[in-house]
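Ticket #4471: structure output looks truncated?

Reporter: J.K.
Steps to reproduce: submitted the chain below (302 residues) through the standard prediction queue, then opened the result file.
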Amino acid sequence: MATTILKTDGLTKSYKGFKAVDGLSIEIQPQMVYGLLGPNGSGKTTTLGMLLGVIRQSSGSFSWFENGESDENRKRIGALLETPNFYPYLTAVQNLEITAKIKDIPNPTAEIERVLKEVDLFDRKDSKFSTYSLGMKQRLAIGATLLGDPELLVLDEPTNGLDPQGIKDIRNLIRKIGKEGKTILIASHILDEVEKVCTHCAILRKGKLIRTGTIAEIIGNQEVQLIKAYATDMDKLRSYISSNKTYTIYKDEEGQFIVSAAPGTKADDFNKDCFDNGIVLNELAVFNETLEDQFLEIVKTS
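Returned output as attached by the reporter:
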């Protein structure tokens, strides 16, 4: 097995002078669940199109499995780029038989049974595709990508258009597949999805890479206690924090302070210290940074 699943070097796609993807360099290792995160128009789908040979890059390069850009690499990839494209009048099994034939999978019966169980559709294997909910259709599409046991799954906006239950089902499925050791590349504009599913993330904005790392690295050091605090006299609270080495103002938002406390310091300690210095807090809560918090901060400052 390759030690690097994907490496891109300055990958760029231009359309009449407009750079949809601008010098993208990322690296994906085995068993990562890697998220390409960015708003619509940030270059996610264009990137996947180049990586899968649907779009020709303007410059830069990429390598799958340390084997360059060879078409042979795509046999080791299961990809879902657009809306599931199945025949509505055929059953799940019949649709997957067609997919298996396209993929040239020998004796596909056992393989189809395996993936239907994997995506929790075995009990509906003989139902026509037209009778499936949107979430079930998406699960079947992911099942199709799993045929042949590829080393990597590539999923473009896998929860797009689904209701809350469908979103939850797809997230749980992706988590399960990831825990089984499969490498997954997901493009999404939904921050909550990436935070809950991915181990690593690349944040794109207007075609450019603006941050990459593990989800924990991007969110920040959670060992530091973050406290949301509000007092009637915010000027007095600001003055106290500024004069105290234990605390710093991490963010000032909507009339509240997000306070960063030294390791080992709890919210109760901050409350007591404020009270001992004549400051009564009207609101006090532990603040946990989310990917959304960091994403908005990154985009704002980039």
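Triage note (M.O.): checked the attachment and the full token line is present. The chain has two domains: 6-219, 225-288.
Status: closed, working as intended.
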